[in-house]
Amino acid sequence: MLSKTMEKAINDQIKWEYYSAYLYLSLSAYFMNLGLPGFANWMDVQFQEEQFHARRMFDYVNSKGARVLLQAIDAPENTWKSPLEAFQFALNHEYQVTGRINDLVTLAQKENDHASAIFLQWFVTEQVEEEANFGDTVNKLKLVGDGGGLFMLDRELATRVYTQPAIAAA
Predict the structure, then answer these.
(1) Which of 56, 91, 102, 154 has the greatest number of beta carbons closer than 10 A?
(2) Contact 150, 144 (CB under 8 A)
(3) Ordered domains of the chain (ranges, CATH)
């Protein structure tokens, strides 16, 4: 069973994960509008990943006999000056997500909630990957600038596909 404090904290994170999905869908729309379908695809895959993260937390709360309370999702940002600025914005967002996940782990440890601490370790590892993926693309965008390299990077990002992670039962 989850404490009320942990239940509320994970419910807040579920909202944040759905907000993240919404943000990446907004970024996908931005890139489609720029005529960069590969970038849009990359963000669409990210959208799907964030929905999976939210659902995984949703299922965990339910499995612990607690109650999921869905909350209103704020409208995401929708304007950026360049693909680089958009990816830097997304990378900074991922840093915030990492901080929130770390806070959840700290709360689980403080409450002696070993099951939640173990459950959250998957998200800790996932955030290392998320930051690396966004950081790598930011670095590539800095290298290519606005020239023909942007077209080649768009083709590379178009190859990303969503594959739902194989997860052991929580």
Answers:
(1) 154
(2) yes
(3) 4-157 (1.20.1260.10)
User: Cα(23)–Cα(114) distance, rounded to whole angstroms?
Assistant: 32
Q: Are 170 and 63 in contact (CB under 8 A)?
A: yes
Q: Percentage of residues in the chain with pLDDT exceeding 90?
A: 85
- Please state, in angstroms and rounded to a whole number, the distance separating the CA atoms of residues 163 and 49: 9
* 25 or 148, greater pLDDT: 25
Handedness of CA 129, 132, 136, 142 (dihedral sign): positive
Q: Give the tokens for residue 13.
A: 């994170």
Distances (CA, A) of 158 to 31, 64, 114: 12, 39, 40
Contact 145, 24 (CB under 8 A): no
Note the Cα 121 to chain centre separation in Å.
15
